[in-house]
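User: I'm writing a tutorial on reading structure tokens. Could you give me a worked example: one chain, its sequence, then its tokens, then a sentence or two explaining what the tokens reveal?
Assistant: Sure. Here is the example chain.
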Amino acid sequence: MKSLAARLRFFLAALCIVIALGTWGFTVTEHLSLGDAFYFSLVTMSTVGYGDIHPTTPAGKALAILVILVGTGTFLGVIANATEIMLSRRDKQSRLRKHHILVGVYFSELGNRLLAAFAAADPQLAEIRNQLLVDPSWQEADFAKAAAALSTHPHAVDTRLVDLNALHTLLGNRRAFLVGLLEHPTLLEHDLFTDHLQAVFHLAEELVYRTNLRDLPDSDRHHLAGDMKRVYATIVGQWLDYLQYLKGDYPYLFSLAVRINPFDPQASAVVRG
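And here are its predicted structure tokens:
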């Protein structure tokens, strides 16, 4: 997108220069007024050629040829690049919409459960919990405040508070679903959501290769805590961004997401009062 914008600026600058030089040149060679010279430059450059004004001097004819050759190219360059930028933005919006749908499906199938499990095992969550209790009245400033709180949060996970067997079963049952997500064409390499999915896969593999998850040494629990922290830290920001997207575009989905907030111990999908 940046290269397209740079090319458009270049062609716009070139077009302005050609128009300015053509206008000045026609005032000198054809003795036209500034307005007529400007008009003649535009119709010449666009190859419209109304015929009401035409060059009568050899210098004017040579200048008209030069304006046609150079001006037409720059004019078409402006049109082509402006069209490409418009189509690129439309394509980006379409891909972003599909990405949000994908993220929504993920949270519905797995993400909310992982968040709830890790939030319950986060020994420092109480320090920022109130800033994560999203409600329907939230505005952009509220989401920004919550994001700022998350940016400094350690996202530690106490594995003693995590049911490792239940986590193993949960991830194992969703393996085909996760593989399908990674194969989705809207995912980008090194995208935050893609990085999160890879972290989830790694955690699932770590759990698979352990035959006994109940009697692990402290050193191994510390290792798993690092893997869980990676999953936890990469999902919570995605969750907040997704809720902000729903707030603006899908109020009914936002309403449910708020009611089942994994950071709210009193969360319930039941609408009360």
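What the tokens reveal: The chain has two domains: 2-89, 121-259. The radius of gyration is 30 Å.
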